[in-house]
Amino acid sequence: MKLPWTVFFGWLLLALASCNTNDSPTTTETPTAASKSAAPATTSKPTILFFGNSLTAGLGVEPDEAFPALIGQKIDSVGLNYAVVNAGLSGETTAGGRSRVGWVLRKPVAVFVLELGGNDGLRGIPLTDTRRNLQAIIDTVRQLSPQAQIVLAGMQIPPNLGADYAAEFKQLYGELAQKNNLVLIPFLLEGVGGVAKLNQRDGIHPTPAGHRLVARTVWGILRPVLQQPQPAAGS
């Protein structure tokens, strides 16, 4: 059953209130065991870094059930040579992400998957701020890891804060992707958002089954990126 946006939005607010911005980042590396640091570990494999909020962190599910870990499993199944790092942080806003991205990128990455903005939208943060913060994160990635391919995960919010705000919020992801030549996931929660059986009781965080669908959406966009020839070091 797909819930009305108004019900979904009410649950989103409850979920937002329950998210602790001081939670430690969840880091999952594939195929090695989970690391204690959200920065890319020393590895001979190119790194895919998932940088986001509780959706990326996998709040409420086991680490190996969150969609970044499932992407790692898909990577292994097709024999691609990448390690996955989950740098999701529950409650993260774009401002928070902007402040910590430099620390997370202490080592260069091959692919940077940016999933932030949902908490901004739920809080009604001005879109100029969200856009500016996302652009600053993109600029930092380009500065610290210039060879990285950036994948931007689009988000949507219900129209409770106004139809114009919701429409502009959705559009800003496409505009940022076009401006910065990024790979865009149009809507991270496609087929999952608002579907009761695919979300936990808070109505926002996917169940393991929901994460499997999110992983399918992400994989459809990410796999062609990973199959492209990697730039030679120093090029």
TrEMBL record:
Q: Which UniProt keywords apply?
A: Signal
Give the residue range of the signal peptide. 1-17
Q: Which residues form the SGNH hydrolase-type esterase domain?
A: 50-213
Q: Which InterPro entries match?
A: Ester_Hydrolysis_Enzymes, SGNH_hydro, SGNH_hydro_sf
- Has the keyword Signal been applied to this entry? yes
* Superkingdom of this protein's organism: Bacteria
| Family matches, as Gene3D superfamilies | SGNH hydrolase
**Sorted alphabetically, which Pfam families does this protein's record hold?**
Lipase_GDSL_2
Q: Does the keyword Signal feature in the UniProt annotation?
A: yes
Tell me what this protein is called.
Arylesterase
Originating species: Hymenobacter citatus
Taxonomic lineage is:
Bacteria, Pseudomonadati, Bacteroidota, Cytophagia, Cytophagales
